[in-house]
Amino acid sequence: MENHILLHLAVIIFFSKILGAISRKLKQPPVVGMLLLGIILGPTILNFIEPDEVIKWIAKVGVLFLLFEAGLETNMKRIKEDSKQAILPAIGGITLPFILGFLLMYFVNHNITQALVVGVVFTATSVSVSVMTLLDLGKLKGIEGRCIVNSAIIDDIVGILLLTFVFGLTSGSSGSSTTIIISFAKIIAFFVIATLLGIFILKPFFLNLKKILLDNVVISLAIAVVLLYSWLAEMAGLAAITGAYFAGLFLGQTEYKSAVHTGIANIGKSFFVDVFFVSIGLQFDLFEIEAEPAFLLLFILFAIFGKMIGSGIGAKITKFDAVRSFRIGAGMIPRGEVALIVANMALAKGLVSTDILSATILLVIISALVTPLILKFSFTKFEKRSF
Length: 387
Description:
This protein is mainly alpha-helical. The chain has one domain (about 60-385): Na+/H+ antiporter like fold (Up-down Bundle), CATH 1.20.1530.20. The chain has 15 helices and no strands. The longest helix has about 35 residues, at about 75-110. The chain is globular and about 60 Å long. The N and C termini lie far apart (about 60 Å). The model has no long low-confidence stretch (mean pLDDT about 85).
């Protein structure tokens, strides 16, 4: 297989761009096209590419770039300003799906670790689908659109923190109280070190780059920071993506945010990120899912309605009217990058079976397909009642 790695990468990159473009034309996120490409090239259909060590390594770097970019885009000031309206829809959209995911998995196999992982998968929100639909409807800058985007950002932050604690607590070989205390100590140590590095070293260093004539190497230095923070997170027994996210969070507070974002987005999305999403599809054999159809159906329904109802109730408590609450709940349905990353990393760590990854991929595709339909319905059929 090693002799064919260059051909495999060429095929992945070429066709991921084509299917990504087709997905956009169909008003779906490009991630759906990339997942489908992985399923086509993998054991489900053609069995043309097997995810070897090279592809896995490139995919890992792609995840880091993806989460670093998410950290860069997290506008802490905007979250503070809009948090009053977004906080309860976000909390509702985290709490109910987490409880439903945990209970579903626990009743299926009585495994607390797997139940926690599924709970975290259910909390993740990907608003790329909702944003695309709201843009088409001209409603992105409306009150519902702003609330959906800000609630999703809060969801991502809480989801990554939940992921951090779940992976941190399950990284020990035993479940003793000593192991749990050590895991918590490592998690706290990482956050303290990451924060101190960010505030006292990273931000001042990047703010003074022009003085030491290093302006032209800002992207290279940003990549070094991503890898350093990711390594620190792994040393603490956490997910590397947690480190990448925090690196983005700190660099996003500097004047180089725009330049770093453009550079990382170009490097990541032209190669690494595409390989990551396609590689997930390569691990997925549609014809070998051992999970019961009833479980898959409940998995998808609980995830969709848990998010919709939870966020909708949160919006209603925030004193949005029923129509706007429905729209906000609908806009929070999609799952995407974070859900796939959580399921994929949990599988790599041996915390869950391939059935959970398969169910998550189906959830991502189905939620991406149903969200535009529900959102458009909520704005066209209920438009007169919205004000």
